[in-house]
Structures are given as structure tokens and as C-alpha cells.
Design a protein that fits this description.
Shape: elongated
Oligomer: single chain
Number of helices: 2
Largest sheet: 3 strands, antiparallel
Distance between the termini: 49 Å
Number of strands: 3
Strand content: 15-25%
Structural class: alpha+beta
Amino acid sequence: MRMGKGEIDSQGTPMDFLVQQLARQVGRTVVDQTGLKGKYDFTLKWTPDPGTPAGMVGPPAGGGRAPDNSAPPDTSGPSIFTAVQEQLGLKLESTKGPVEIIVIDHIERPSEN
């Protein structure tokens, strides 16, 4: 797998990985409704949103932040939404639905016993 600004090139990848990466890129929850199982090879190239922080392409396998040594992206390319549809045959649709939220309304230090 290779990831860079505006590009994911992957082999033998499950759909849930693609969903996670798309969620990171668009900054929203992405839900897999494809029903596709198995592992897939794909290359996805898009023009990153100028508001996306440089290097926001996912952590390396060992954790931390991946160094951003890639060339600047081609700004004439498609948006990530267009690229997903044209290059992968999938569609990112914005819908409303239930989202799990954890609310912490109070916290205390544990007492020593």
C-alpha cells in the first residue's frame, strides 16, 4: 500500500480500510453500504482539499505521523468525491443518520484504597 497527498494505491485491501481512509480525508463519518466483501486492488487519485492539513494521509504502520516527502498534488484533478465515483465506481453520498456519541459529563480521580 502506498499513500500520499491525493493518492491511495493499494493491493489486497478490504473495503473497511478504504472506508476509514475516506473518512479521514473528508473529515466525516463514512459508512460502508456497498455489501462488498473480500480484498481489492485499487488506485485512487484526487486533488486534496486546500483545507486538509499537509501530510494528513494516515499514520504509518508503527503509529505516529508519516513524513510528507511527496511532490505537490496536481490541482487540476478531480475532487475526492468525483474520483471515488469515476475511478472506483462507488459513490459518496451525504445523508443524515444516527451517529454514536460518547458524552462525559463528570470525571473524578479515583480514591486510593
